[in-house]
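Sample intake sheet
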Amino acid sequence: MVKSKRLALATLFGVVIFASKMPLVTPLDKAAVIVQALLLPLGYLVMGRFGATYVAVVGGLLTAVLRPALSPFTLLFALIYGLLTDGLCTLLKVQASQLSTLKLTISMCVSTALIGLLSYYTTVYIFTLLPRNLMVEVVILVSGTASGLVGGYIASIVWRKYLSKVVAKI
């Protein structure tokens, strides 16, 4: 029962990610990732290893339905983003019981910057699905990195003040 409630909470995080992406078109959705940068680390903290990956895949599957033409890329990059988040949180030894805001923020900053660059490079340079635009590249890099910083920081606050108490009860 305990695991099912945590799974339901992580699924809800994925649904919120999907809802936040609905009004945005590609490639602008790559710049506005603050919701993902907030909810992926919370998924990691709630579920442990592969929690962020689970949240990202749920959001990616729902978003793929919304954008079927780009669904393989949506799913692939959602999976990679979740794996990067889980991997960096594990590598930096982010622990729910003794949360380090700095470690969580660094994990999200790096994973968000990497996935932003990777997804943009793949869609523009490798598959030429989108035209090259220097301004969009700068916006994605700057706002994506900033979103990672802010999302990781806010996630640590939300975890400490609210969510850790909720998860402890379920």
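Comment: The chain has seven helices and no strands. The first helix runs from residue 2 to 21.
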